Automatic annotation (TrEMBL):
Its EC number is 3.1.11.2. Probably binds two magnesium or manganese ions per subunit. PROSITE patterns: AP_NUCLEASE_F1_3, AP_NUCLEASE_F1_4. The gene is exoA. The record marks 153 as: Transition state stabilizer. It comes from Enhygromyxa salina. Mg(2+) binds at residues 7, 35, 151, 153, 247-248. This is Exodeoxyribonuclease. Gene3D superfamilies: Endonuclease/exonuclease/phosphatase. SUPFAM superfamilies: DNase I-like.
Length: 261
């Protein structure tokens, strides 16, 4: 059972670059997308209401900003599109879908940069991390097997970006941001990719300036985290850097289908 996550950097733009063909050929049961940057009615019909997928979108109130979407081969047993905290919910950053005992949380974590690249949004970002953490911990305590996937906008360890020393004061690699994700790991959450790959040089985002992607000068900021009770069902994890259409690459996991039972 394949689950994929991709920050598409604008779903309408990505659709013009082959997103629909990628989705059809993905082999996935569940696909979460972030930074949709469109309301559902603004999307092409074959994405808004595709014949072969159950699609659900959570847009931001602000036009052309943020937003998440989920495509599923089977209808979820239940869905949630809110954290219940207005200052987060207006930005359309999280959705939750349950498939039997498997809960999938698709989230677009904020960037800490303000309008002037001044790290002024870091407190908001950290509060969002904590709110999502509380949500998924409740699901975990209820006995659900939980996947939290999306663009986390933070590289946790030096191994996760090409130039850690140059980015110590950059949002996405600030100590307080990294500490917040380390708190998840200390609580038992699994970085699915690191369950299978311990080496460096594996990134999911590259700056669009210059030739960063061609030179693989990137950051690994897109994750699929798994609750500890999911470990027996993990069969693989991967990044698809060859897939174009966004400044991010899709990331994915392979699960035993029994995870839903």
């Amino acid at each position: 059972m394949r689950v994929l996550s991709w920050n598409v950097n604008g779903l309408r733009a990505s659709a013009k670059k082959g997103f629909r063909a990628w989705l059809s050929n993905s082999g996935a049961e569940i696909v979460g997308v972030q930074e949709v940057r469109a309301r559902p009615e603004q999307l092409p019909e074959d994405l808004r209401d595709p014949d072969d997928w159950h699609a659900h979108f959570v847009p931001a109130e602000r036009p052309g900003y943020a937003g998440v979407g989920l495509f599923a081969a089977r209808a979820p047993d239940s869905q949630l599109a809110t954290l219940g905290i207005p200052r987060f919910d207006v930005e359309g950053r999280v959705q939750l879908a349950r498939f039997g005992r498997l809960t999938v949380v698709n989230a677009y974590f904020p960037n800490g940069n303000g309008r002037d690249r001044d790290n002024s949004r870091v407190p908001y970002k950290l509060d969002f991390y904590r709110a999502v953490f509380e949500l998924v911990q409740r699901r975990r305590r209820a006995g659900q097997r939980v996947l939290v996937m999306g663009d986390f906008n933070t590289a946790v360890r030096e191994l996760d970006l090409a130039r850690p020393k140059q980015n110590k004061n950059t949002s996405g690699f600030l100590k307080e941001e990294r500490d917040e994700l380390e708190r998840w790991f200390a609580a038992g959450w699994l970085d699915s990719f690191r369950e299978f790959e311990g080496g460096g040089g594996h990134y999911s985002w590259w700056s669009q300036r210059g030739t960063a992607r061609a030179r693989n000068v990137g950051w690994r900021i897109d994750y699929i985290l798994a609750s500890p009770n999911l470990r027996p069902f993990l069969r693989g994890a991967f990044i698809q850097p060859e897939v174009q259409g966004s400044d991010h690459a899709p990331v994915g996991v392979e699960l035993d289908p029994a995870v839903c039972e």
